[in-house]
Amino acid sequence: INRFRPGRYELYAQDTWRMHPRLTVDVGLRYAFYPPLTDEGDRLFTFSPDAYDAAQAPAFADPDGYLLALGTGNLFNGILVAGKDSPHGRAIYAADKNNLQPRIGAAWDPWGAGRAFVRAGYGMYFDQTQVGMFAQNVQESLFDPFRTDLFVSNPSLSKPDSGTVIEPFEVPTPVSLATSTRFVAPRWQHWNMGVQRRLYSRGVIDVGYVGSRGDDLVRYVDINQPQPVDFLAVQDGAA
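and the corresponding structure tokens:
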């Protein structure tokens, strides 16, 4: 049972300047700090390619790689456990402290008649990732260092752990869900520019442009998926 402990701290400051009778500028700055997620019982874990040692990989007991030979290698090779061997202490990823979020907006009346306005704005936003993602990664990962159930094939009745093959998974291909140790808060940027013109007492025309960009968005990445350059290298070798 996981008892997750998230945190959130934010500061925000904003001011408005009437730089000219026809120009107003709004400037703001928000700072957000989301401490790395921890678990009350230190039951968080993740897989790190940097901690993986190929020399400790268990041997497969079948050509398809579904079964592992009992007593070979380290089943939890590359697994980092919070509060034990994680380089981030009780967390499994480093604290992201660079979450500055500037905002700026401007409104300009080009002719000073109050009938037409040019407006523009820009903002940067960071988001705290839902705890559910971390819960899924540790609760559905098949390489769980806290897991106690194992399936052994061909054991003897007098010594159940003497089987030659171990199958600790109930699916054909064993996989592990993990949170990147380089995890940072997702970031969005939004900007817009527009012109509003009053045509008559009940009519206004509005023309604008809106854009956005996302960075470090949360998504699944298969680190074992061959890259196009590797596939082409194999094809060239076969040719």
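(Above: one complete record from the training split.) Helices lie at 131-139, 228-238.
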